[in-house]
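Anyone? Bumping this.
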Amino acid sequence: MRVPRWTAAVAIVVITVLAACSGGGGTSAGHGRTGGTVTMAWVGASPNFIFPLAPATNTNGYNENLTEPLWPALVYDGDGGKTAVNPQESLFSSITYSNGDKKVTIDLKHWNWSDGKPVTSRDFTFVYNLLKANVPNWWLYVPGLFPDGVSSVTTPSADTVVLNLTHSYNPTFYTDDVLSLVQILPQHAWDKTSTSGPVGNDDETTSGAKAVYAFLQKEGGQMSTFTTNPLWKVVDGPWKLASFTSNGAWDYVPNKEYSGPDKPFLARMNNVPYTTDTAELNALRSGSSITVGTLPLNDISQKGILKTEGYTVASVPFPAVANITLNLYNGSVGPVLSQLYIRQVLEDLINRPQIVSKVYNGLADPGNGPISVQAFPSWVSPLENSGGPYPYSPSTATALLKAHGWKVTPNGTTTCQRPGSGASDCGGGITAGQPLSFQLLYSSGTASMDEQEAAIQSSEAQAGVKISLRPEPYNTLAANVGTCTASSHPAATCGWQLVDFGYQPNSLYPAGNGFFNTGGYNNFGGYSNPEMNDLINATEYGSSTSAFFTYEDYAARQLPWLWIPLPANISVYKSNLQGFTPLNPLTGGLNPEVWYYSS
Amino acid sequence: MTAYLVRRIGQSVAVVIGVMILTFVLIHMEPGSAARATLGTHATASRIAIFNSTYGLNEPLDRQFVTYLDQVVHGNLGTSYALQQPVSSLIAQRLPRDFLLLGLSTVLALLIALPLGIYQAVRRNGIGDYVYTGIAFTLYSMPDFFFAILLIAVFSVQLQILPPEAPQATTVAGMLADPRALVLPVVTLALISVASYSRYMRSSAIDTLAQDYIRVTRAKGLPERLVLSRHVLRNSLLPVVTLVGLSFPTIVAGAVIAEAVFNYPGMGLLFYQAATSHDFPVLLGSTLVVGVATVIGSLAADLVYAVLDPRVRYGHA
């Protein structure tokens, strides 16, 4: 599965309208226009599961695109163009932290389900009970967080939920990254173990919760009944599912009972799958019925033609960070990559500004550090904003290598001349004559990616760092790149040296848990640093606002990954579609309830 | 004939089982983990364990194969790791689409190639022969994706008289209800196949035209139209029948490029995506279907021989 959650979620969104394209902005408030159909094109995959709590084996991020408009999360990500929580759109009316941030009181708004029943705190406990009994078989499960980090849940009233946490969390982190993953589900309609069985309180026992979960997951995978199963007709989001076909097309119609602030203006929203972006581009160019689609960055030159077909072209930064992951436990180059100065050399030699301008036509995040400068401006430290700690500088890289006993051979292969672990030696585990040579695996299939890796290969050669490139399909990369740590680095899955998967998603609170902490679930290269662990913990468990920048700058300097540019996502939409911009990187075009036609 | 049929069917079953064993072993020899390939960056240790347990990948290989065989015998081809749907459902959705698209294109290609081949044989080394040979070779040597995009650029983007996508309906009847959408993909696949069929037909017809019985029919005053249609065509068809029989599995296997360009998810894309994502059940299911199609195609070609050429006596083979 190529598309992780955030990527799927942002596949068609817009934040920055290109200079040449000006139509389509504005707000939907008060325009008085209703009706019409929007057809949205989705490339490469389509949903296959409707129960929002998908099993661990199903990581299809498109499922979230299908279900979020039906059952919104407790915390709504994205406020206008800002990557922030949107209190107005959220189901909660307030979230209060007390008892040293170990107690969370959530007050719910007075929303109704589509069958007229109220959304209550019991619906929250239903979700909690299901997850508690079935963790880790939940695709969004992160060990230690929800529901692990909750010691008890109480419901003082039908509108209030109180979570007692196992320890203190940073409220921003907990709201943004934990509660935003929780979708509230209708206990009064779903708490059953069979199609014909009665609705009860089965979730209140572990065995009952397991049975309910198994039943709902079984039903959730039956694509042929997505629109007919009574379970999925009870929603609290702005849309209802009108149709779903086996080829992955699905349509929404407005949920007339929606209690939230933005009732849909459109009469229908169709979602149409495309096998490839080539097929989608052909459709866009030939005056198809597509209202909203995507445009590969390599085809940005087509924007003039698309304009004549009535489209506006726009771009949005991905809420993610691009990187090259380093295998610190590779048998041959692990000791080399473990040296911070070597990582600095590699970063110094990446000409990121040139890649942004030449490869990505200026439509890319510069890749200055662990936070996307463009997608998360409020979380970017002054250091990252100023270009990061390691601007492109071949001379600095060459000097560093020479200072550590390497014989630098520009456009050849630099070799270690002074092995040893002294301050001016190559470093522990590096042998005399060891070449500065690495294989870089990267995700194939994108021309701009090929160009980026070739640019890196070329610029690294200036200091004699030899990079051999090996493109492979994403899934092949994922299959062969194993997690390597100090305690486990089997040769079969630790043969890789450098890998570029494309990007790693940042969450709403873009901390480094999972990526850079020891044993983190996405820490493939085995980076382990007690100080980094402490700083990450400080961002999650403490409330200090400066802790984040401290962590961010430390990560930027320590280079657990090499930072590289990340291309923006390019979208096209019919110029008479209003309310499309500004959309938010985090909501990913999943708020068509604010769209309307100007004519 | 009955004995021949029984023997051939027995051989076919053995071939299919052999294909299953070979495919199963080869797929599992592929480096890398199916769990990692499917889960991607979500592949934590606990998720990998759940994945392997869910799909029986933590069992010994021989037990996995026995389980798989048992499933197949009971009509269950397993569940796709990536698409999370029964493989039989996926194949049932996509196979009819490929049958329609590739079947129509094969029929169209034959309708063009057979008379063209005979025409070229009759007018051998004439201007018409050279012109059609040139055209056929040009089309044959053209990459199908390029030809498809060329047709889309002209007929969909410039002239806007034909849609750039194949029909999006999920049933064959629904697809046939949108004939305009079938034009470009069918024409693309047909024209790039015309060359091979017409060259075989031309070559075979040249041989047939040199036969004594053709001279006899002409000497007896049979009109040339009847000579060609009754005697040359029928006797020249044998190599083309072989070719068509062997192309049957191709029809079943789909046309990955055409499916990608014309937004037509079929067996080709299904197999390609499964191959790049370690989706073992889909790979095995698709291979099984193509294997069966191959033996059926081969068997059908042999039977058609008997119809076309009475000299073939399978019963005494």
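Late reply, but here is one note on the structure posted above: DSSP finds 14 helices and no strands in chain B.
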